[in-house]
Each structure stands twice: as structure tokens, then as C-alpha cells.
Amino acid sequence: MAKQIKALKCPHCGSVKKQNIKEDHYICNNCGTEYFLDNDDINVNVKHQYGDGRFNGLDPKTKKYLFFVVAGILFFVIFSSIIRTCGNKSGGISTLVSSDDSPKKKEYVDRIKEYLAFTAYNSKNPMFLFIINRSKDAFSREGAEYFARFYDPLKEKIVNDIPLPGWKDDFYIQTRVFSDGGFYICADKSNKVYKIDPAKNEVIDVTNTFFGDVPEFSSGIATLKFTQDREGDGFNIMTNDGKEYYYYPLVRKIYKDHMQRREAGTGLSSLLPGARTSVYYTFSEKSSDYPEEKIQLIKYWYKNNSGYPIMLPYSYQVSWQKVYQYPKKSGIYYGSFPYTKKLVKEPRITKFVDLTPDRLYFKADIGYQDSTSLYITGLPDANPEGHTYIQKIDTESGKIIWTYTPKSDNYAVESDMYGYTGGVVFSYYDRSGASSSNRIIIIANDGTVLKDIDRDEIFKR
Fold it and tell me: Which domain of life is it from (predicted)?
């Protein structure tokens, strides 16, 4: 019988779109149903598949796409397993697969040895520099690493870590701001000097820059340390051949002994052309010649050449005394001689004033001073067991801008203070609680306490 079907439709979905897979056998392009014609009865027979034929309900393109997706997933799982297995065999490290997403415990301990603070670049905020000891636990020193860590205390963020090769646990950091504005650090038993670069938050080794081409140091530097702050921008140097010098690198001047350096830093005759006048602050001491004179906060003007030796007076040299006018001829003289009442003898001090004439001071000291700021410490009265205060003093009027006293009943304020453009940073040791703590305090110029930090907990988080 002739075939009379004009439009053969899929018996499953009714679509006329199909593919001829062999004579009188078709597969629906829409639903994938396979059917064929029976020539004798003109019947449409549908071929149903079960079990492994469950994907026949999809068109061939979809089945092909799903095949590649499944194959890709299987390949990734198998390949990852092979890589992990090979890595464990070659590195000798066993990998534990765990569903615990908690952070892994650090395999080292960062211990703060020392710190300093300065003004962050293009900011009025402080930046800290910590000397960090990194070891396997809090007590071990063997195999420890040391580095300088720049830390933003207001943002509580580590900014940069700089390795310090050759640093030792018994090194004690010294810091100094030279007259060129540079912030320098060194360790008192080392032979290296570093300069802080606040723009990059880095420390730069300037040892060779300072000392490399000085003939007297040709044997090498054994140890170096800063001269005292009141002696200017210098170093005490011992060379490898055992010789000692005083060296002022900004002006490249070397002095063979203390007497030679003292002559360069005292008196008016040693001043060079272009000498400047700088302002400093100090407390006077009780006078034996004039016991009625109280301790005074003195502001004085001092002539000096930038970078050269200076000899600022110690407190014991700032005391009211009788300066006698003895005969200039040699001999032994008896009797009374005229004298004048003087507070200081150094002729480079051209002027001084009592900044706070109405105040009494007890165990007072200068905490920090620069060209615009003055911070002092002291006791509120004569009781030696009193609580130490920190005060910011107006450098023009002598008025107290703010006073800070720790809330603790038992503490000790550390001597090092660091001024920055927006305020001051200092530390105290709190002994009041069940466990003691080292506190770092950041106070703004207006007296606002910006941060009260437990130093020992900063890097334990």
C-alpha cells in the first residue's frame, strides 16, 4: 500500500521536526522520541527506552553539553587528587582534610622588644616602628628573626615589615632626630645606623654613607652609638683596631677625644659664621648658694652651628650660684671677693626666662621638647609616693594645656616620649592588676586620649 501521510508528526509531542536515522525510522528533534512506520498497517510505532536511556528526553546538543560538563568535573576532581598526592610524597608534608574552617594557629610568636613613634607621611597622625623578635614560642631565642615593623596604631594595621639581619636580642635601640630632620636609629652594641623613610615606611642602612670614606675608619667600625642628646648630631665610634673617635656625619667632622670635641662645642669663639639660635627647655636644680630659690622651668636661647657639636647644660649646671671675680694674676689670695648671682655660665646661652614663675615642681623632668612643643612629667606635691603626671605646656605663656594621670594606683611612666605633629606618644608600666601590663598612650594636642593600647597584646590577635 502506498504511503499517504502528508505530515508525519511525533506521536509523543506532535512536532513535525524530525531526523531520518534509517529507512522509515525517525527521531524527534523536539523531544528526542524515536519512532518508525509500519508499512503494512500504516501505524506509527514509538520506541521507549528506560534505564540507561534516561537522557533521550533531551535534544542532542543539550546531551552533548551535559556530557562535557560532567566529564570536566570528573577530570578536575581526579586531577586535584593526583596533585595533592604527588605534593605530599615529594615534600614530606601530610595534608589533613577537615571540615573545620577556623583559622590555623600561628607557628611562631612575634614579641615586641622596643618601639618608637614619629609623624606619618603627609599626615598629622602617628606611625609606630616596632623592633620585633619572631621565634617559635614566647620563651625561645634560638633561631629568632628580627625586623622593623611599621604599624598604624589608629587604624590598627601593619604597614610594612623590614628584616634586620644581624640584629641581636641584647641590642638596645637608640633613636635621634638630627638637625637635618632625619630620624635615625641604631643599637648600642652594633655597628650599623639606619634612617627611617616615612614616605615608604622603610628603614635604610646609611652606615656606609656616613662612615665609608672616612680614612680613620678604614679598619672598619667595631661599635657605635649616638652621643648624648645634649651633645648634638654625633656618634661615639670604636674602630676594629681599637681607636675611639667622636664623629659628626652631617658636617663630616671627627674629634679624637672629649676635650677636642668640647672645645668645638662651647664658647662663642668656636662658632662659625651663620650660627643660628635654637630654643631649649630645662629644669633648674636646688641651689646650695641660694637655698631659697625654688626649682624653675627654664626656657633658654642657645647659639650653635647646625650639625656641629653642642654642649647643652645638664640640670646640675642650671642652678643659682655665686660666681666670684678672682684676681687674674697667679698667687694665693685671702679675704672676700666680689661675686655675681648667675643661673648658667655657658656664654652660648644668650637669654633665659622662668617660663612658669608661680609654679612649684617636685621630681620634675622634661619628657619631650621640640621647636613647638613641650611635655613634662612630675609629682603633684612633695610626697615621693605620689602619682606621676604628664603635662603639655604652652611654650609661650607657660600655661598648662592638659594633664594626664593614669587611672592605675601603681604604675611607672617610662622616660622615652615621642612627639608627632598631632600630639604625643608615651608609655607606662601598670602594676596594679592581677597581671601587669605595658600601656602605650596616644594623646592629641587638645588632650584627647586617642588610644590606650596594651603593648603585649597588639600582635596576639
Answer: Bacteria
**Domain range annotation of the chain:** 112-256, 274-354, 363-461
> How many CB atoms sit inside 10 A of residue 283's CB?
17
What strand order describes the sheet that includes 235-239?
A: 221-226, 235-239, 244-248, 253-255
Question: What is the chain's Cα-based Rg?
Answer: 41
- Find all residues with CB under 8 Å of 449, minimum gap 6, and list them: 404, 441, 442, 443
CA-CA-CA-CA dihedral for 56, 57, 60, 66, to nearest 10: -90
Dist CA 20 CA 5 (whole Å): 15
What lies within 8 Å, CB to CB, of 444 at 6+ separation is 422, 423, 450
Nearest to 412 by CA among 430, 426, 435: 430
Q: In whole angstroms, give the CA distance from residue 82 to residue 450.
A: 54
Nearest to 95 by CA among 106, 83, 105, 103: 83
Across 214-371, the runs of DSSP E, i.e. the strands, are 221-226, 235-239, 244-248, 253-255, 276-283, 297-304, 321-324, 339-342, 349-354, 362-369
**d(C-alpha 308, C-alpha 231), whole Å:** 9
Of 433, 459, 420, which Cα lies nearest the Cα of 441?
Answer: 420
Q: Which pTM was predicted? A: 0.75
151-165 residue pLDDT tens: 999 999 999 999 998
Per residue in 3-53, pLDDT (tens digit) is: 344 456 677 676 666 666 666 766 776 676 766 665 544 444 444 444 444
